[in-house]
Amino acid sequence: xxxxxxxxxxxxxxxxxxxxxxxxxxxxxxxxxxxxxxxxxxxxxxxxxxxxxxxxxxxxxxxxxxxxxxxxxxxxxxxxxxxxxxxxxxxxxxxxxxxxxxxxxxxxxxxxxxxxxxxxxxxxxxxxxxxxxxxxxxxxxxxxxxxxxxxxxxxxxxxxxxxxxxxxxxxxxxxxxxxxxxxxxxxxxxxxxxxxxxxxxxxxxxxxxxxxxxxxxxxxxxxxxxxxxxxxxxxxxxxxxxxxxxxxxxxxxxxxxxxxxxxxxxxxxxxxxxxxxxxxxxxxxxxxxxxxxxxxxxxxxxxxxxxxxxxxxxxxxxxxxxxxxxxx
Length: 328
Prior knowledge:
Strand content: 5-15%
Strand order of the largest sheet: 7-8-6-3-4-5-11
Distance between the termini: 19 Å
Order of helices and strands: EEHEHEHEHHHEHHEEHHHHEEHE
CATH topology: Rossmann fold
Number of helices: 13
Number of domains: 1
Shape: globular
Radius of gyration: 20 Å
């Protein structure tokens, strides 16, 4: 197997491109795809302060590393969700990555700050664990980005994630969600600009990137994700991809090119009736936002100020350039 660029020994094949890459040119390919997503969708401008939502998994660590490699000023934000050993281990991976590169990692402890964890919160609020988790993370990420003065909030959603969500939303015709399933959601009152620079890379490619870059990441799935329909949608699309390489890319980017605009009016209409939550001030369609209702039902509390722990490794302040064997 030869690299399509240099004809040297290849380490990975990307079937949707009918191409193989050596280590150096695979890194170049990943940087190129992320840079193209940023450019095509005007995700990040020079000088923007960027906050990366970090979980300790391959996708969030890969995009944080790639953004730094591309010269962006990017800090991380990790949220401890109180999911037993899983949260302890995921937080350790996030901290070790930041420490090894001298990057700033902000940490919010959900149980310590709000008095509930995801297992107890989901039971008390009668929400599925993934629903309670997603709601909590979205609120805290948005709040941290706005209060921290960041211009852009980055998440590690990759092509597999976006294609699976699109598959589910299309199967059930959740048109209000289809109108918001874009690589960029612009900033508006109460919400930061949110971007997904990994949409041109697959889950397999971000995993390979981390392995080849020597980035340790949490491999295990969240123990509370069992039964999540998103996983079954991914499996179905994986089966299709095996038989038709490039199907995920065609499905997702075909939607963006040909259909997404049809659903944006409904999504925009949903945003017009937002008011400030009487408890926390976040935008909501009700008197009290869904996050504050979750906190109340879980028997938690609202801190006057959310304690954010800051950590930075010993390499802080040092400029970081790719090593010679990473240059392409």
